[in-house]
Amino acid sequence: MTELTTTRSNPMVDPILHVWGWEIPVYLFLGGLVAGMMLISGYFLFSGRWRNARSACYVLPGMSLVLLSAGMLALFLDLEHKAFVWRLYTTFEPGSPMSWGAWILVLVYPALAANLLMRVPAPLRRRAPALGELSDRLVERPAAPRWIGATNMILGGLLGVYTGVLLSALGARPLWNSALLGPLFLVSGLSAAAAFVHLTARDAAERELLAKADNGFLIAELVFLALFLIGLLTASGAHARAADLLLTGPFGALFWVGVVGLGIVVPLVVQLLAVEHKVAHTPVAPLLVISGGLVLRFVIVQAGQVSHWLRLAGL
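Given the sequence above, the corresponding structure tokens read:
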């Protein structure tokens, strides 16, 4: 079994991850989804949409905390050195993506909590009046929502890029050896988050706004996918053969049908028609987008595992 690791001798730097199972793709997907939610809710706070009591910025932080915790649980289940997880927080290794991710997550949780404090639910206010008072003070300060929103957008962007950098930093796998994985996973997470808001938002204007935004994200995802594959095809022979794993190889059907076709092209066409009011908005397109984002992580992780320099070079 191959392993996602930088070193076996120093579990403090990068705990060993077995990625043949479901845990790592799920972790990467949920991390990207939460990153997109932070960018969207942060933008809503920064732009003043928080004044609308039905805004998604009051729902997304709580959902983000739950989903991010689920992703962290998936990661923990896949760690080989579970007893050494705490050592990630006793040092900072600039060359370790896992170290960067661990410290980014330290900041993400309080940023989401601050966003959540913008409106404390009435039952919680009754149980914890201090939280209600803190929320009122935040709302009374005009700069507070903008600062909280900006912080969430910055950390959301870092979290989204990190989910791709975690793989791209591993040069031993030609398929992952691309700087475009970071922005690809970021825009894919934004697309999935926009689809989620499109699916669940209570405000009709926000649903329409996120449907339009998701069309842009889907087009950007197609562009990044194309650039990612072109970069592999025009690099070394091993990189080109790694790209063939997705284009014509054993992962080709899942890539073309599950990621490109049903995950991007079909929902893009449906949503373009929907925002032009030629067809009704339905849950079908957002669900396809979210599913496509998950399939993308599974395809990239699994195909990357079977892409070896020696094997792909024919040695």
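Residues 1-170 form a domain with the Formate dehydrogenase/DMSO reductase fold fold (CATH 1.20.1630.10). Try to locate this feature in the token string yourself.
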